[in-house]
Amino acid sequence: MSDSVTLQVDFGERSYPIHIGAGLISQPDCYKPHIQSRKVMLVTNETVAPLYLAKVKTALSEFDLDEVILPDGEAYKTLAVMDQIYTALLQKRYDRNSTLIALGGGVVGDMTGFAAASYQRGIRFIQVPTTLLSQVDSSVGGKTGVNHPLGKNMIGAFHQPQAVIADTDTLNTLPDRELSAGLAEVIKYGLINDPTLFTWLENHIHQLMQRDPAALIHAIERSCADKATIVAADEKEAGQRALLNLGHTFGHAIETGMGYGEWLHGEAVAAGMAMAADMSHRLGWLSAMDDQRIRQLLRSASLPDQPPSLGAETFLDLMSIDKKVMDGKLRLVLLQGIGQSIISQDFPFDCLQATLSRY
Amino acid sequence: MSDSVTLQVDFGERSYPIHIGAGLISQPDCYKPHIQSRKVMLVTNETVAPLYLAKVKTALSEFDLDEVILPDGEAYKTLAVMDQIYTALLQKRYDRNSTLIALGGGVVGDMTGFAAASYQRGIRFIQVPTTLLSQVDSSVGGKTGVNHPLGKNMIGAFHQPQAVIADTDTLNTLPDRELSAGLAEVIKYGLINDPTLFTWLENHIHQLMQRDPAALIHAIERSCADKATIVAADEKEAGQRALLNLGHTFGHAIETGMGYGEWLHGEAVAAGMAMAADMSHRLGWLSAMDDQRIRQLLRSASLPDQPPSLGAETFLDLMSIDKKVMDGKLRLVLLQGIGQSIISQDFPFDCLQATLSRY
């Protein structure tokens, strides 16, 4: 464990560690302090199970283990599929002191987390994210939930894990496209409030693309720390937490408009950040050079720097059902510079229209 | 509103009023301070809607109202039926500042509350309980949720309402059997820690059975206050809150064993309290006279004072899947006197067996 770091995240009454490093999923000591009773249910999916489930089971061999293997993909992030977790818990008579372990990407983490939040009104869970996106995004903030046919992530709960175990070795089996999608969120943290991270990314994007462990650990740690700083100040997303939605209002519209699964979440967020940059430049808030730096970094990470051609009208329609709409008024996260994001609902509608019409 | 009282309930960061009185559902002022945006979704069922929905709509006529009318009955307290609420909220584009109003009994309250807890990870809701059971039980404690085919109330969340409006006039349309079922919970509060309430009930049971408004207001207020005292000390049910399960471990076994809907919840709890009294008497903790007083009061309220003949083995099997089982060890709420309940997992198994075998 020489190449690992631990970040402690504090939320009001609750605090938990994020362990980041190579080979951690095989370390019993990462899990054991966070398990209360002997009963531990492992939840994963059919892609991740053959790769990593045996390692986790070996690490936890002293416990009474059960497992649920879900189908893989955002299309299965539904109440109906989540019911498989409830059913397994009830069939095996899991009580309130039991523990769930989420082994997989964001979909597994969100569903397992919501199952933990709602089974018997709340049991404990440990997150073992195996994608870069879930390591930098879902590890902090306690957001759990499922999709609804009428909207993404519309049903869920805030529920903090007992611990997060982010093993960079699991990224070696990640498809290139998913690695890039994860980097989109890392870039996002640079844009929101961490210009030092943004510059570091400009200088280390090739190491990251080559999955250099030390670079990955740094990027994950910095992203989680940045997110924790924002979230800790605002656990319930009343104010500053909305900054984390940079690129997401546009991004969700892209995902919904294309149908879930066509674009990866991170790809949609990347295009959404490019759109936010474009709009910020039109508002005179962001220089042409910074707009260019953003697009360049996205391209270096093999990410899209523009959305698909949905048309302005479709975009507007898709955006108005988004969670970020407050009482009918659209709020967007925009940029006043790299590392200087703001929440705004005070922009000329023409500017939004111009950005949407560009594509 | 001369004949009404307001009880303030405090839970950590959250506090809310319970208004109790005749005619309150028609009073706009009971609702208005608790609604944030113009969008208000009324959730009720097909039995309650024709009786009271118009009154609530008139009281809230200045808001943008929508409604969801669910089928009536415990059998419909499921994730699938709850999805009707999510769908309506999404179709009508309800955002995070919207308000849900639950108009009906415990099933409507629990489902609407869980929908509010989980829609966009939490929106506000107001409870308008129209049964005695829901007025004295669901008004306090923030428990929301649905049933699972494998267990009652197994999926849910803790989510406090913004306000509770308990209108005693709505009890005039309540079937006799449901009035009695509600009184079972009132009797429970007397048994748990309020001997004064128990004695008052012995002296006023006939007024309550005749639906005397003043007697009802007193019984509801006292029950809510008693429950609030217990819950406030222990919002997450780690300790003393389990006292509220007096009669419930046996009662849930009866409900599950008979199939949901055969016995009303309150009837099962009444029989469960009689079983707890029987067992407490066998343990030498409760006098024969107090055991008799309990049975007598249950009978005066037209409630069962014994369970159906399920057989000891079936009972044990049904009880071991109950939420109150801690890590495999059965905990029961028993009586050391009227108004003196305790949580115990330290009793001879023979005593439990003897009580279960008696019926």
Protein described:
The structure is a homodimer of 359-residue chains. With 359 residues, chain A is of the alpha/beta class. Chain A has two domains: 5-173, Rossmann fold (3-Layer(aba) Sandwich), CATH 3.40.50.1970; 177-358, Dehydroquinate synthase-like, alpha domain (Up-down Bundle). Helices cover 44% and strands 20% of the residues of chain A. Chain A contains 13 helices and 13 strands. Chain A has helices spanning 28-31, 49-59, 79-91, 106-118, 132-136, 176-193, 195-209, 213-232, 248-258, 265-282, 288-300, 312-319, 349-358; strands at residues 5-11, 14-21, 39-45, 64-70, 99-104, 124-129, 143-148, 151-158, 163-167, 325-326, 329-330, 332-335, 341-344. In chain A, strands 1-2-9-6-5-3-4 form a seven-stranded mixed sheet, with helices on both faces. In chain A, a hairpin with a 2-residue loop joins β1 (5-11) and β2. In chain A, α9 packs across α10 (265-282), α9 packs across α12 and α12 (312-319) crosses α13 (349-358). The first copy, chain A, starts with a strand and ends with a helix. The mean pLDDT of chain A is 92. Chains A and B meet through α3, α4, β7, β8 and β10 of A and α3, α4, β7 and β8 of B.
**Number of spatially distinct domains of chain A:** 2
Tally of extended strands of chain A? 13
Uncertain parts of chain A? none
**Oligomeric status:** homodimer
Number of helices of chain A: 13
Roughly how many Å is the radius of gyration of chain A? 20 Å
Helix % of chain A is 40-55%
